Structures are given as structure tokens and as C-alpha cells.
Amino acid sequence: MTDLTQYLDYALIGMLLAVAFAIVRLRNLFAVVMLMGVYSLLCAAWFVSLDAVDVAFTEAAVGAGISTVLLLAAMLLTAREAEPSKPQRHWAALAVVVAAGAALLYAVPDMPVYGDAESVANAYVGRDYLEQTPHDIAVPNIVTAVLSSYRGFDTLGETVVIFTAGLGVILLLGFGGRKREPKGKPAAKAAPAARAPKAGKPAKPVKEEGAS
Amino acid sequence: MLDILLERFNYIPIIILMMTGLYVVFATGNLVKRLVGLSLFQTSVFLLYITLAKVFGGQPPIIADAHGDDHGAAAAGHGAAEAVLYSNPLPHVLILTAIVVGVATLAVGLALVVRIREAYGSIEDEALNAADYSRDTGAAG
After folding, report:
1. TM spans, by residue (chain B) (predicted)?
2. Which of A13, A129, B48, B82 is the most buried (most CB within 10 A)?
3. Which residue in A7, A113, A142 has the most chain B C-beta atoms within 10 A of its own C-beta, making it the best mutation to test that interface?
4. Which residue ranges form the domains of chain A, and what is each CATH number?
């Protein structure tokens, strides 16, 4: 299948790699967050090329849109610049990543062939959905049919996850009317320090001090 | 061996992208950048699943002629599904769910980071470790 869109795929892969390496190199958090948005958008473009149009617009709206907004807000509330980390940490991370990547590359020959309609991944359940959807559900978009009807309970679970996450964020950050004690940082630091001796375990910090 | 890899060339850049995200998670001490690395990893896993679902010469899994009257079009739609190749819709559905869940977990992680910044005044993990250990010795002494 020599169609011209494969060159578009190669270009997108190249851009994805460039953006990912730039994210590794940069320390300015604004640039990092913006490049993450660019990465999501490039992914969405590749999803269109891979026939996954529903995934593409979800990625463009949620991955490139909402994620970027959330990351920007968190960046504004915390820090603008990442501090450089120690060199030995880079080497340790590189060792872990190379080992994991080598294991994954070792597994690649067992994966299904790219673009093969008869591969195990594409042959059974997905084809059943394609054949049954016009009979069972009068929805032309099969992704919609599977998402909301065949696997409706999955989607229900997903909304439960989103609800739980929203609840967690509200519990962590409050509704915005949270009272800020004056000198919030020293008070927050002082509270556990004042509580520790009162709890009647001075032995443990001494032991930790001796250990460290 | 080489043509086995060439038939599966799509997995190799995706594995490199996944490992890039993992490297960011391990190598940076800044918690916001670490969450960006986690998102990078996650988005690359989405790419892995979607390339798995690609069928060469396939269409997006939207049946073209399902708009007519339902019962008559059902048989026609069945015939069309045989004749026209479609990409596998199942990984699309799974990744659709995963994208939304990924954003939800990212939001919780960022809320934790903001709270850590309020409590400690820093989001670098070295500074957080230092603050924790100095607090312990301060309580002892």
C-alpha cells in the first residue's frame, strides 16, 4: 500500500520525537507545558491519519486543551523554572530507561504486523462490533455505539472516576473560600513539629537522627 | 529479522517516545515537570494502541450508508461492512476512556502539587526531602 499519507506519518513521528526531546532538555516550565500541548496536538493529527477520528478530537480537546490549561494553572500557582537535578540521577534514570526500552524492543517481533487487517488484534472482537452494530444499534459511528451501548458500563465507570477525581481536587484545594491563616507556611510547618513531642514519641526522631 | 522489524516499524519510535516520558519522570525533581513526563508517557501509550488498530486501506469506523430506514439499511450496512475495510473500533473506544481518565488523574496530581507548594514552599523533591529531614531533627532537638 504505497499511499502518500505514510510520508505525513513519518513527518509527524519526527516532530513528535523532536518535541519529546525538547521537553527533556528544557527547564522553563512554561515552555515545557506548551510543548506538551503541541505534543498532544501532533498526536491528534496522527490519530486522524490512523483512522481514529473520535480519539483525535478527544485528544485535541481534552489532551491539548484541558490538560494544558490545568498544567498552566498549576505552574502559575507553583513555580516557573525547574531546577537542574544531579548528574548521577540522570545516569540512574538513563539506566532504567534503557533497560525498560530494551525489554520492550525485545517484545516487538511478537507484536501484530502494522496495518494488517487479519492480525489477531483486529480479527475477532473489533470485527464483530463492525458487523453487529448495524443490526443491533442504528448508530453509524461504531465507536459511539461501542462506547455508549456495548460497553456502557465502562463509560459509567469512567464517569465515576471523573467524579472521584473532581471530589479529590475539591477536597485538596477547596472551593476557593478556604481560609488562609496568616503566615500559612510557617504555621503549617510548625504544626507537625509542635505535635511531635506532644505525641510522646521523642525516641523515634532521635533514632532517625542517628540513622541519618 | 530486519523485515520482521520493518513490518512493525511503528512500534519503535513509539517505544522511544514512551521511554522519553519515563526518563522525564525519573530524572527531574520538579513535580510539575514530572507530571508532564507522565502525560508524555501516557500519550505515547495511546499512540501504541491506536497504531495497533490501524488497517491499511481502511476507513474510519463510521458506516457510510446507515442513514436510510433502519431495517432496510441494516442488510445493506452489513454488506458494506463486508466490502469496505474499516479500522478496528475497539482500541479507539478503550483509548477514548483512557484519555479522559488520564486528565482526571492529572488534575488530582496537580492539586497535590499545589498543596505541597503551599505547605513546603517548594516543588523540587530535593528541597522537600531536606524540609522533611530538618523538621524531624528540629523536633528532636
Report:
1. 12-28, 93-114
2. A129
3. A142
4. 1-83 (1.20.120.1200), 117-176 (no CATH)
